[in-house]
Amino acid sequence: MAKNKNKRKGTVYSTDPDYNYDYEDGEEQELLEPSKQKLRVLLDSKKRRGKQVSLITGFVGPDDDLKDLGKILKSKCGVGGSAKDGEIIIQGDHRQKIGKILEGLGYKVRVL
Predict the structure, then answer these.
(1) DSSP character string of 6-46
(2) Domain extents for the chain?
(3) pLDDT tens-digit profile of 31-65?
(4) What gap in Å lies between CA 34 and CA 60, rounded to an integer?
(5) Minimal CA–CA distance to 92: which of 108, 107, 76?
(6) How far is CA 94 from the centre of its chain?
(7) Could you give the C-alpha distances from 6 to 17, 18, 25, 45, 107, in angstroms and in order?
(8) Can you name the CATH fold of 31-111?
(9) Which residues are CB-neighbours of 66 under 8 A, at least 6 positions away?
(10) In whole angstroms, what is the distance from residue 21 CA to residue 7 CA?
């Protein structure tokens, strides 16, 4: 795995060719099994010019798993969206459908 030079901490530059940089290690969250996760599905329109989106919060796990779950939800709802910063955004009001899909996958869901 290649280290990103933007994640260096401390020394910015060294003329020593054998110098080893210290890197910040982002702590990976452990993926909780779906039955132990409590997801909240709510309708949001803030900062979106009045457009409604279904927002899924409460996911605990690595970003790759969050993106995979977002991809599943987007394809089953047939709409666009994104998954980042621990949240999944699905375009439109699909709260009930998302709730049923997540329950089918084994997640504990609260639809608001």
Answers:
(1) GGEES-S--S-TTPPPEE--PPPPPPPPGGG-EEEEEEE-T
(2) 31-111
(3) 788 889 999 999 998 888 889 999 999 999 899 99
(4) 9
(5) 76
(6) 18
(7) 18, 19, 12, 34, 36
(8) Translation Initiation Factor Eif1 (3.30.780)
(9) 59, 83, 84, 86, 88
(10) 10
- The Cα 84–Cα 58 span in angstroms is 12
Q: Is 47 helix (H, G, I), strand (E, B) or coil?
A: coil
- The structure tokens listed for 55 are 């927002």
More confident residue, 82 or 23: 82
CA distances from 56 to 8, 50, 59, 65, 91 (A): 33, 18, 8, 14, 11
Q: Which DSSP category does 3 fall into?
A: P
